[in-house]
Structure formats: C-alpha cells, structure tokens
Design brief:
Order of helices and strands: HEEEEEEEEE
Number of helices: 1
Radius of gyration: 18 Å
Helix content: 10-25%
Number of strands: 9
Structural class: alpha+beta
Distance between the termini: 41 Å
Shape: elongated
Largest sheet: 6 strands, mixed
C-alpha cells in the first residue's frame, strides 16, 4: 500500500483514496513467474538448485520477490529474483514466488511449480 498524505474532507473520502492506492499497486504487475527450475524437474540429491523468477513489468521501488518452498517463506526476499536453495530433502516439493511490498503485503503470486528431489 502506498502511504498517502491527504487533506480529508470526511473519513469516507480518505478511506476511498487509500483503497484506490492499494488497487493501483496490485494492478501494476501483469505477471510474476518462475523460469527456473522447470515444472516437474527432477533434481539430484543433495537437493541444491537455483530458482530464477521474473516479473512483468520490473519491480517498483520498495517491492521484493519472496520465494516460498512448500508454502513457507524461504530465504530473504530480494529485487533480483534469484535464490540459491540447498539441502532440500528427497521427495516432491512446491515452489512459488510472490511480489511483496515494504509491509510484506502480497501484490502478485505466481503459479505453483512442482519439482522432485531424487
């Protein structure tokens, strides 16, 4: 959400302006997705691999990409969309990335990408 400084005519008018700022941030991104690893890719033990994510358009100032592994935030969010993952246990796993704002609010989420560690 963008922080707005406005002169409020009434509480209702201020609320409408703040809600409009939320929608503008969320609508800014057409897409976010994982380009590496590929869907259903098999990764050999010890489970070390890289995740590369991209957004369209590029990230706005203050926004970051957060990696999720099996539904849990994994690694520190960053602006590059590149993550090193290591030591993941054998089996099926789900990857997802989300664009987050400075308050960790989710602006856009990718589809889930499935991988397996063998």
């Amino acid at each position: 959400m963008k922080l707005l400084t406005v002169l409020c005519v009434s509480a209702l008018l201020c609320l409408a302006l703040t809600m409009h700022a939320d929608v503008a941030d969320e609508d800014h991104y057409q897409s976010v997705g994982i380009i590496e690893p590929e869907q259903d890719q098999k990764i050999q033990r010890p489970g070390d691999f890289s995740v590369i994510a991209v957004s369209e358009p590029n990230l706005q100032s203050g926004h970051r990409i957060q990696l999720y592994l099996d539904g849990e935030a994994h690694r520190i969010p960053n602006t590059e969309g590149r993550f090193s993952v290591s030591g993941i246990t054998s089996g099926q796993h789900e990857l997802q990335v989300k664009i987050i704002d400075q308050g960790a609010g989710v602006l856009k989420s990718s589809a889930v990408r499935n991988i397996s560690i063998e």
